[in-house]
């Protein structure tokens, strides 16, 4: 099955919703396909093939690809066209270093602002993480982990900071999915996130910032083994 056929099968194009332009729908489908792993790293995205299959002009597809390139999710390569880039260990290390800085700041802001619904939300997510850990449900662990990080960045109250974090996390998504499969990583993440949420519950911004930084530094330290496993 071709890449385009696979996207179409998993997310039928149809007509975009009344308030969604063709370009927005193309962007959404391609972005979802990349983030969900249906369009793997190294895949070439054929603009003409998509245009023919989806029966739309190439302009909205080209615009969607430009937006994705700005987010670092696709890359224009001379002689090859647009591809979903492969993330090297060096790339991942740089991206995790940036995550340490931005997500630690978001955690501090979340703790100091402490929106009314945040504590209940984090408590529910930590409980869900613990349940998934007992069941060794890796897919669920990844989903809950993503929700925890998203809840904290959203609670920062800084939209630009939240969007920057979202973009960074999107760029390392497939690395994150593999990381949770490393031996001992789910339990370690559970302990680290429990420490982080406790700091947020106590409204201690400095502790929350340090806990998030420690968590991401721990993940960053695991990157060599994650890539070694993937290559093995």
Task: Please explain how this structure is put together.
Helix content is 72%, strand content 3%. With 232 residues, it is mainly alpha-helical. The radius of gyration is 19 Å and the shape is globular. Residues 11-17 have low confidence and may be disordered.
Average the pLDDT over all residues and give the rounded result: 89
Net shape? globular
Radius of gyration, in Å, reads: 19 Å
- Helix-strand topology string: HHEHHEEHHHHHHH
Main sheet: strand order? 1-3-2
CATH class descriptor of the largest domain? Mainly Alpha
Topology:
Layout: H1 3-10, H2 22-35, E1 44-45, H3 47-54, H4 58-70, E2 75-77, E3 81-83, H5 89-113, H6 118-135, H7 138-155, H8 159-171, H9 173-179, H10 185-201, H11 205-231
Antiparallel strand pairs: 1-3, 2-3
Give the gist of this structure:
The chain is mainly α and 232 residues long. It is built from 11 helices and 3 strands; from the N terminus they run ααβααββααααααα.
Jot down its keywords.
single chain; 232 residues; mainly alpha; Arc Repressor Mutant, subunit A; Four Helix Bundle (Hemerythrin (Met), subunit A); 2 domains; 3-stranded antiparallel β-sheet; 72% helix
